[in-house]
Amino acid sequence: MKETYDEALKRLLAHEGGYTNHPSDPGGPTNFGITIHDYRKYVRPNATADDVRAMRLDEAKAIYRAKYWDAQRCDDLPAGVDYTVFDYGVNSGIGRSGRVLRRVVGLPDTTHAVTDEVLRAVARRDPKALVTAINDERLRFLKSLKTWPVFGRGWGRRVAEVKAFSLKLAEHTVVANAPASHPMPTEAAPAKGVVPLPKGLQKVTTATPVAAGGATAKTLHDSGHDPWTVLAVAGGFVLIAGIGWVAFHWWQQRRQHAPTPGLVPIPAN
């Protein structure tokens, strides 16, 4: 709902905190919860970690509105469900939050799009049941990540707080009065709850073939082979590196969007 946005954003920013660049966080340099990748996409294509550190709050808010709230049609979702989906999308990507929303209302999850069909299905469900189901699934997913031992304490607290406040909203609590009955988060729970690409394997699939190709090309060149042969060999190693990079990103996305056990679709009223 439109009336929820300001309060939802305020609470999300409290959870995300300020600038971080934790080596275990797949998001990399991040400020206000906005990763360097999103900052490059929406604000500055060649942004550095220093640019992310200097990010203005209004820039972060504009990205949140466009990429996460509007993209998931949160204005059209019931109070409580909107905040739950919004926070999940920021933490784990709208590709996952959108699919989970579709799964929980019994629709195919081949896309993450929040369509008119999704909105109609949501309208036929109890908002409190949707809030509970989505947040419980979110916690199970986060616990399945290998980064849970590092960030799990904060993530668990964050999910619990999002769930509790979303249930308040779903009970039609007046948003303007919500902080009095539901205090703001006082401790940040940063880091992106996504399936990380294994760094060791990533290096093997990209850096190693490229380096090997360069070394082989140099050997051929020094041995007097014609330039076309040298170029063909070097290009072959680069192609292998590219295929490896694509393959591991495909593997990561499959795991990121895969259903977690235990989610039961909510029946329509």
UniProtKB/TrEMBL annotation:
Presence of the UniProt keyword Transmembrane helix in the record: yes
Pfam families membership: Glyco_hydro_108
Keyword match Transmembrane: yes
Key words of the record: Membrane, Transmembrane, Transmembrane helix
Domain TtsA-like Glycoside hydrolase family as annotated: residue spans: 10-93
TM helices/strands, residue ranges: 228-248
Record protein name field: Lysozyme family protein
The organism's taxonomic lineage, starting at the top: Bacteria, Pseudomonadati, Pseudomonadota, Alphaproteobacteria, Hyphomicrobiales
